[in-house]
Amino acid sequence: MTIIEELKENRLLFDGAMGTMLQKMGLPVGLEPEYFNLSHPETITQIHQEYVSAGADVITTNTFQANRVKLKQDELPAIIHAAVKLARAAQPKYVAYDMGPIGQLMAPMGTLSFDQAYEMFQEQAVLAEEAGADVVVVETMSDLLETKAAILAIKENTQLPIFCTMTFQEDGRTFVGTDPVTAILTLQSLGINAVGVNCSLGPKELLPIVEEILKYAVIPVMVQANAGLPEMKDGQTFYSLTVDDYGSAVEKMLKSGVRIVGGCCGTTPEFIGKMRQLVDETPATIIMPQKVTAVTSGSQTVILNDGLHLIGERINPTGKKRLKEALRKKDISYVLKEGLKQIEAGADILDVNVGLPEIDEAQMMQKVVQELQGIVTAPLQIDSVSIAAIEAGARYYNGRPLINSVNGKEESMREIFPIAKKYGAVVLGLALDETGIPDTAEKRLAVAEKIVKTAASYGIPKEDVMIDPLVLTASAQQDQVQVTLDTIKLLREKLEVLTVAGLSNVSFGLPNREVLNGAFLAAAVGAGLNAPIVNPLSDFLMQMVQSLRVINNQDRDAADYIAKSQQLTITSSQSAAPVEATSEKVDLKTLILKGQKEDTPALTKQLLETMTPLEIVNQFFIPALDEVGVKFEKGTLFLPQLMQSAEAVQRSQEVLKQYFEAHGQESESKGKILLATVQGDIHDIGKNIVKMVLENYGFEVIDLGKDVPIQTVIETLKEEKIQLAGLSALMTTTVQNMKVTIQAAKEAGLNTKFMVGGAVLNEEYREFVGADYYAKDALSSVTIAQEFFQ
Fold first, then answer.
1. pTM of the model
2. Beta pairing partners, 9
3. How far apart (Å, rounded) are the C-alpha atoms in residues 220 and 550?
4. Beta strand pairing status for 294-296 and 301-303?
5. pLDDT tens digits for 54-113?
6. Of the candidates 490, 453, 295, the residue with the CA atom closest to the CA atom of residue 379
7. Which of 788, 344, 255, 311 is nearest to 593 (CA)?
8. Is the bond preceding residue 573 a cis peptide, omega within 30 degrees?
9. Of the candidates 40, 74, 52, which has an alpha carbon nearest to the alpha carbon of residue 62?
């Protein structure tokens, strides 16, 4: 029986922590645990056997960091084959290949490209299948895009099933800002076999997150919690949560419908034994998840069943000379501005169409999608008549897009449905076929039924199909306007699918277009329209939208209507088409807040004509960064946007640096800080973010990198006369080296103050290692540095 067949009939119990057991058995800190597969195979096998004896159905291989970034590439085959062999030697029912994150930030936040991540995951997946693994567990993931790269690498190169778990922080989001609903809706749409959460928190703290996942999970849910939060005792990491307390929370999860359980950091065979008892004794629960029509970005979900949602139409070159010119010149900055303006005006989803015959549309679509999703959190609609462009957009998209479009023609459905299925997209179907656009509502409904039925044959459920009834012009086909409205009603009542419609088509060729568009919008919403494609920069239309949301009870207590009414005035355009703005006045602070890094250098050069560098820093850099920090703390802005703002400042700082060099001056530093990831730890994502943000605030940073020998830290502290240093560690096993480093500095007679940070760090660890400050994130390090050097 395969693991998937087993899961259909029974719940599965995974093993517990590997690192905790290795530490318990006294293996040396500082060496990647994967090397123990070759150097200490008997110890790894013993750990596996203890978990099997405790009742584990599935043993996870000792391969969490087995990628070419963290291990030598030529050693990967031997390490991975040995890992699977050792797990199999313990004679479990199933062996799961453990695939963790690569440990670098994905572009556009960092330098790791989607294709590079894909290649590294592909390498592991192929070796895992060769070695005989039964399933791949992609675990402890924070970045949805990196997770997607791993899933595609496994699915496209092996036949292995995939279980996937992400790791959430106390704020209910991953490190880069993904919430549980966005994670579950995106990941299960990619065709994996189980989804869930692991690490970070204890089972009690994970319960609310698990409950959110269970609301929408149409595949089995998996949970592997930590044994509480790590603490220090006698120089060792330990977890205080008892087996019984852990089991109490797991029992609640099982009763809620979780089908796969196991343990993460701090759990041991005793914990697995308790869970074996619970799995055997707790009756299975059948859950009835909500089936919704939803699109996602990396950090936001739009559930289209819930009221009226707007799709912004302006990233489409049709009739837009400036956008056409920008696309020809590969001026992504202009495209990003158009996206930002629409989001600020109230668009919930952005349509992205970059179709021009003289450009490589697929390449441009990929570029625009990657850059746009770095600065906006709204989901995107991938819009093209080019199959290559649609696939490029869908593949590199961070989330679950809406694909525009397919139609009732057999060729169209053959081309689009496999793409939509593969990349987990919602697909928009147009009510036309080989005969053209039907002239009655009943005939358009028949085309829609054909689209929905054919989609189902590709494994795409009805809730993942939206229909565009097609809006024709009142000027040329006036009788067809009512046909469109009637079609919307039939689609809602007979087919029970959601609808999308391009609003501006109805008024083409007529005066006072916004008035006619507004009247049609009201009629269409009354007929059941869910998502109009509109120009959100039209004040008149947005006033209509706000009014409709009050009427349909979407805007409770008319709160948004009242707020927006203070800002909008009713106007109407007399032109036949929207007028494109010819000039915009923006200041440097606004560009930084929006992360428009391509535009900040030019404006900085302009400002230098009338301002000093210090004035620019104080009037624009610092206020913008402070506002970004406040939004980040409040959870209204996430790591990708924070990084874009930081890079926008960094590019402006390069201009200031060139100015100083040209004028024979040196830029003023607010203080010199050393940063290093401690010896034995090769994780440097957090440290790199801290570096960028500290530099933004004017501090000089000496970055020693990762896995830094203690002696190198001490020598640099002496040579550079460092007063403040920052040490980073991700793993509990390497926190000890923080203590040793700080102690070595004291023994060397240095008065350097230390701040420490990392995923496992807290105030208790700070005290244990002897540091002076604990920085919970990059912005905290700035506060510490500002107070220290004031």
1. 0.88
2. none
3. 38
4. antiparallel
5. 999 999 999 999 999 989 889 999 999 999 999 999 999 999 999 999 988 888 888 899
6. 295
7. 344
8. no
9. 40
